[in-house]
Amino acid sequence: MKNTESRILITGGAGFIGSALVWELNRRGCENIVVCDRLSTDEKWKNLVPLKFADYIDGNDLLQAVQHSPAKIGRFDHILHLGACSATTERDADYLMRNNYEFTKQLCQWSLASQTRFVYASSAATYGDGAHGMDDQMADLHALRPLNMYGYSKHLFDLHAKREGWLPHIVGLKYFNVYGPNEDHKADMRSLVHKACGQILATDKVQLFKSHRPDYKHGEQMRDFLYVKDAIRMTLHLAETPSAGGLFNLGSGKAHTWVELATAIFTALGKEPNIEFIDMPEHLQSKYQYYTCADIAKLRGSGFKTEITPLAEAVRDYVQGYLVPDKRLGDEVS
């Protein structure tokens, strides 16, 4: 933030993108940050160890405070709401609705009532298979058809915010395929870069899903891959740009194949590419996106001029700077 004294709440602050936001704010001289999360039994708490922040609050306690005693937690200048269940394979719909929809509704209402800048994570998963495009300026959000319950839970809040007239006054971030340091705890939801690096170091090869559509060769399915360091710069730009409102695609603006990504990982490790194609699990086949690419014209139009890190350069930074030496964001100085 330009004002290093700003008081900032980051939900999901121990998670992947949330902890990266704390790291970037620290780099800008801001430490007046309250981190909110539910640490549970995984090891995302390790992401917080190198970081500087003023306080920590459990997600359940935050919700109780917002509902019953908001004065106890005080006022914030910015709320960056990254907290959610982000597993695209999660099947407990009640859990997703409570965490991704109801929590966001209540936090947004509180934020608007206290005139606090509210920025929240929507998702590119709301676009479904992309048949209706991936346009963050589309007028008819109802036309979208998410492929999984995670995407639907995010889509439902986008619809609610539009219906309530909130969207022009808040920012919803449709993150595409974000990868980078601090994602270790995400289990099956880790990026291919994280998974493949371990596979390659252990076996000298990587496994990719075969294509089950004739119009795509094996490994030629395409994604818009976005390095987390770029994602957080975009996020903070929108947070501190009062004129920015509504939904924004956050991606690189370029689609790359899985083969291109895997090749960049091998190169970063100094190895020759060795790719094995395996069958996609049957339960994923009907929910699989074959192509994603963010149209980031609206982001650029908001004044974001920073160059986006090229894929090979970003993969090299991640693999050589963090994965191989087993470091997290904030460990760079040690």
UniProtKB/TrEMBL annotation:
Purpose of the protein: Catalyzes the interconversion between ADP-D-glycero-beta-D-manno-heptose and ADP-L-glycero-beta-D-manno-heptose via an epimerization at carbon 6 of the heptose.
Binding site for substrate: 177, 188, 195, 209-212, 223, 288
Native organism: Prosthecobacter vanneervenii
Superkingdom assignment: Bacteria
Domain notes: Contains a large N-terminal NADP-binding domain, and a smaller C-terminal substrate-binding domain.
Record-annotated active site: 150 (proton acceptor), 186 (proton acceptor)
PANTHER family assigned to the protein according to its UniProt record, in alphabetical order: ADP-L-GLYCERO-D-MANNO-HEPTOSE-6-EPIMERASE, NUCLEOSIDE-DIPHOSPHATE-SUGAR EPIMERASE
EC number: 5.1.3.20
Known catalytic reactions: ADP-D-glycero-beta-D-manno-heptose = ADP-L-glycero-beta-D-manno-heptose
Name the record gives this protein: ADP-L-glycero-D-manno-heptose-6-epimerase
Subunit field text: Homopentamer.
Keyword Acyltransferase: no
Cofactor(s) this protein requires: NADP(+)
Cofactor: how bound: Binds 1 NADP(+) per subunit.
GO biological process, one term: carbohydrate metabolic process
GO molecular function term, any single one: ADP-glyceromanno-heptose 6-epimerase activity
NCBIfam families: heptose_epim (TIGR02197)
Protein keywords: Carbohydrate metabolism, Isomerase, NADP
Cited InterPro entries: Epimerase_deHydtase (IPR001509), Heptose_epim (IPR011912), NAD(P)-bd_dom_sf (IPR036291)
Gene transcribed to yield this protein: hldD
SUPFAM superfamilies found in the cross-reference section: NAD(P)-binding Rossmann-fold domains
Sequence ranges assigned to domain NAD-dependent epimerase/dehydratase in this UniProt record: 8-251
Family of the protein in this entry: Belongs to the NAD(P)-dependent epimerase/dehydratase family. HldD subfamily.
